[in-house]
Write a structure and sequence with these properties.
The protein is mostly helical and about 100 residues long. It has helices at about 10-25, 30-45, 50-70, 75-100. It is globular.
């Protein structure tokens, strides 16, 4: 393995740990991921209290993970879009917990 081409530091560690899960997700049919995201969003929007918050937080974790992996390749508008989406998911999750939903 060529260690010079690997990304050093935390980013490199996250990329190496993410390699197998990303390959696994890539082997799944596209509709499986779409259904999973939609199901988490439905649970998050219609669930009450911690159930709704949990659905949104799981979705937030995956979105944050993918955003972190893709961050260097994103243009500024793509970065802003992902940050806004993560902020909205976090705000909705907090609103579920505190009873704002």
């Amino acid at each position: 393995m060529d260690t010079e081409s690997e990304t050093p530091g935390m980013r490199g560690a996250v990329e190496r740990l993410s390699a197998k899960p990303v390959v696994f997700l890539h082997t799944l049919p596209r509709w499986v991921l779409l259904v999973a995201v939609f199901a988490l969003l439905v649970v998050g929007m219609w669930g009450n209290g911690w159930v709704g918050a949990a659905g949104l937080l799981v979705l937030l974790v995956f979105l944050t993970w993918f955003a972190y992996l893709n961050w260097p390749a994103l243009d500024p508008s793509g970065r802003v879009l992902r940050v806004v989406a993560m902020g909205l998911l976090a705000a909705f999750a907090v609103a579920h917990v505190v009873g704002g939903f």
